[in-house]
Design brief:
The protein is mainly beta and 171 residues long. It has no helices and 12 strands.
Length: 171
């Protein structure tokens, strides 16, 4: 449906293309690198096509699990967050050469009368250079028509990366 390339971008926002046309959307994030080393990577939603972004405590819940190539396990969760965490501090994005992350994120039922849910699968080379796989889920804690999704780093800009949005038919 649409594609954006980060270039020292504060946020990457998808708004105009999220409608009731699809019950499932897929985002692909390829070779994302933050400007700041060792930073969390987040997602937020909008119900007014990006005029405002929900960022208050209690807007989201999320849970994720990570496994590193050094055989370490990590996880994170919250039932009252200001954002959905895609990559958290234990497996945060690095900003050095070859420390990029790539993700596939599904958004389920954004126009429904239930909570909009997200599932994600990511691979990253985190700030210590360790290859890490992350799987997780999140949800918006109110039944609302989600018409926008924002990706952002917890601190600093998104230095580079390609972000694409797909609508899945038959879903």
């Amino acid at each position: 449906i649409s594609s954006q390339t980060a270039s020292t971008s504060a946020t990457i926002d998808f708004t105009a293309d999220i409608t009731s046309s699809y019950s499932t959307y897929m985002f692909t994030l390829t070779d994302v690198v933050p400007e700041t080393d060792d930073v969390n990577f987040w997602m937020r939603t909008s119900t007014d096509a990006g005029s405002t972004w929900d960022s208050s405590a209690g807007n989201y819940s999320y849970a994720n699990m990570a496994k590193q190539d050094t055989n370490q396990d990590h996880g994170g969760s919250s039932d009252s967050a200001t954002q959905i965490v895609i990559l958290s501090q234990a497996v945060a994005n690095g900003s050095d050469t070859n420390e990029e992350s790539s993700s596939v994120i599904y958004m389920h039922n954004p126009s429904g009368t239930t909570y909009t849910k997200f599932t994600q699968h990511s691979v990253t080379t985190e700030s210590a250079g360790e290859l890490t796989i992350v799987s997780g889920a999140g949800r918006r804690l109110s039944a609302a028509d989600v018409t926008g999704v924002r990706f952002l780093a917890a601190s600093g800009n998104i230095e580079s990366g390609t972000f694409k949005l797909y609508g899945l038919t038959g879903s």
